[in-house]
Amino acid sequence: MTDSKGKQVIVWLRATGDAPILKQQKVKISANEKFSKIVEVLRTKTKSEQVFVYLKESFCPSLDEKISVLYEAYGSEGRLTVNYANAPAWG
Amino acid sequence: MVASEKAIKEANWAGQIPLKLVLASNEITSLDTPSPLYALAFRLGYLPTVAAQALEFFQEVLPPGSNTPWFEYKRIPLPWQIPVGVLYDLLASENEQPWHLTVHFRSFPSDTLLRWDGDITLRAAFFNSLKEAAYICQGSARSVMDMALQAQNDLWSAVTAGDAEQYASISSSLNMSPKARGERRPSVPLRLYVRHTHGGYMASLNSATQYTSRPVETVTESGRSRTLQEVLLALLSDLGGGAASAEPESSNTSTSQPISTLEKDADAEGEATGDVHRAASSAIDETWQSLSSVHS
């Protein structure tokens, strides 16, 4: 199985609360990466150690889950929308 | 069937794992090795809940300083967010009782375990999973996010105390019955942990096990109920595709829903979801026997 080696998912990074809005809000990430990769990208881009990340404006999935699985479950219109904040946003 | 479902639920909630906890040798400041602590942990509970008891027990011999508890089995740090019963089924040697664990209060392995900021971290992780579960079942996590603080407190104390009745009475208001939305068929949250090496040496949790957490549709396109076997076979081949070993070899599997207690909410309604729920909450081992024979 060649799997989704070359496959990429468009991830839309949306700022929430006081979080800085990024210049580049859409990034392509390999579908084989784990969700923690997105958190890593956000840490680098927002230059902040602590970043809170949400799907569907409500929950944070398992950081170990593959992006392809999350895209299939929670993506729509060809992308996975991820909200990020610098403080907990959705209790 | 209804009666046995009830019995399974009760057994799930009542199940406990006997633990034998020894303190990490490099954290002992006394001349004599302190005696081990024997404790019972709810299968549906979490290791940090046992940590308070261990701290009280070992406090006298610990060096001065702040304490961050974590547990280890055969040199493998145990993730605090996975229910005790799942960890035991996944990792423990066959029928190992009591389960021999080492408890640490220093040198938290932040490279392998999720960050730990105290008990609030565990509670937050639980409610986060509950929100994900609500989203999968209902298409919205509103019911969880709108819970009153008091109800949240009561629900959490029911989980840590293994109080099935209190849990049921609070969670019934969350209305977690899976429903179809748009083109998506009714789904339940499923977490699957697979151990793919036989006993013996485990280099790390990640090398010895695989994990996925995702929604699973409870009916087929034609509206027939899916069985746990169908769901697991599909998931296993999916996992196998991305792994070094083509298929799991061991019979040591364990499932848990994003919260292992969720099934208690969702199962009362809709017969359509019955197969997945019943099977998920019952004898995985037996299911696995038939799975293995299909698979190999």
Structure, described:
The complex is a heterodimer of chains A (91) and B (296). Chain A has a four-stranded mixed β-sheet. Chain A is globular. Chain A starts with 7 loop residues before the first strand and ends in a 6-residue tail after the last strand. The mean pLDDT of chain A is 89. Chain A has a single domain, classed as Roll (Ubiquitin-like (UB roll)), CATH 3.10.20. Chain A is α+β, with helices and mostly antiparallel strands and 91 residues long. Chain A is built from two helices and four strands. In chain A, 22% of the residues lie in helices and 26% in strands. Chain B has a domain at 2-104: Ubiquitin-like (UB roll), CATH 3.10.20. Chain B is built from twelve helices and eight strands. Chain B has helices at 2-14, 47-58, 84-91, 119-138, 142-145, 149-161, 164-171, 205-208, 228-241, 263-266, 274-281, 284-295; strands at 16-23, 37-42, 70-73, 76-77, 99-104, 187-195, 209-217, 253-256. Chain B has a five-stranded mixed β-sheet. A three-stranded antiparallel β-sheet of chain B has the order 7-6-8. In chain B, helix 6 (149-161) runs antiparallel to helix 7 and helix 9 crosses helix 12. Chain B is globular, with a radius of gyration of 20 Å. The interface between A and B is medium-sized, with 18 and 18 residues.
The percent of residues in helical segments of chain A reads: 10-25%
Structural class of chain B: alpha+beta
Structure summary, number of beta strands of chain B: 8
CATH architectural category of chain A = Roll
Please name the defining characteristics of this protein:
heterodimer, A: 91 residues, alpha+beta, four-stranded mixed beta sheet, 2 helices, 22% helix, B: 296 residues, Ubiquitin-like (UB roll), 41% helix, disordered C terminus
In brief:
The complex is a heterodimer of chains A (91) and B (296). By secondary structure, chain A is of the alpha+beta class.
